[in-house]
Amino acid sequence: MGNAPISVLLANLPDIYLTGISNLLLNVEHSPFRIVGSTSLDNVMERVRELRPHLLLVGLPRKGVDVEGMIIERAEKAMVGIRKQFREVVIAVFAIPGVEEYQEALAITKKAEVEDVLSLEMGGAELACCLRQLFEQRTEVYKQCLRDLPIGDGKGYESFAEEVLPLLFKPHFSRFRSQVRRGSGDRLDFVCRNEGQHSFCKTILRAHGARYVVFETKNEAMPKVAHLRQLAAFLTPATTGRFGILLVRQPPRQLQTLFKRLGDLLRDDKKMIIVLYDDDVLEMLDMRMRLLEPMSHLEERYDYYMMHM
After folding, report:
1. What is the CATH code of the structural domain delimited by 149-308?
2. pLDDT attached to residue 66
3. 91: closest CA among 107, 78, 104?
4. Residue 224: which residues within 8 A CB-CB, separation 6 or more?
5. Which member of 136, 155, 194, 308 has the greatest number of CB atoms within 10 A?
6. Looking at residue 1, what is its pLDDT?
7. Helices 278-289 and 124-148 sit at what angle, rounded to 10 degrees?
8. What pLDDT was estimated at residue 98?
9. Do domains 6-142 and 149-308 have the same CATH topology?
10. Radius of gyration of the chain (CA)
């Protein structure tokens, strides 16, 4: 199934700490981490928007020695902004134990909803274990959130999908945008760019011209013909391509009826829609937590639909 590493963005770390933490994370045996970049606090929002890392590690070294005196306030503002816009990103703060900044770092965690405050003096294996646990805890939170989400809460389901879809499918699907309005007046729930190297990304690009992938969410018990017809209408060769994914909560009682309706709807246009249910999302979250590739599950569902339509 392949490996799906945990992507890490480092922010506001002086060169000595940047090099040290990079070496610690990369040199741990069987390291699950992939460092995608480093940035200053001034540019951290843009870099998070561009890279959508799983983990953001923010450094708070000693004032007056390594950084400017206003670093705590700037760091807090940056992290609050990221938490509001990119809730799926796990944030951890690095500080030096025993100094004023460490106590300040502890004080701002509640305001910025930071997952943890870590010591810059941690060893590689300890640091890797701690960060892995943060990632696993977040994934478990999403699994429980889906189990607790009532059918019919459309806004809640959209908010859940907005956080979870990048977690599952980046970096293969990237540049996720929500509530996209087109010139025709159509509003697409989610659109993302297909630019991965996974075999499935190449398959849908070749077979369906899918430069983009359209996701529609319907917090209803089972898929309806109207859902499929609406999503099919959104798939246009000149803009998105011909591949879309519908998320609903449960499969229909008669799967063969669903396949027949999809076949009748899509056969002449080289379009393709697959439907994902709660069990699929929970399985992919579990795969993500175990560092397996959720895109492989998506590929299996695609093959299954192609065989049965």
Report:
1. 3.40.1350
2. 47
3. 78
4. 218
5. 194
6. 52
7. 170
8. 62
9. no
10. 21
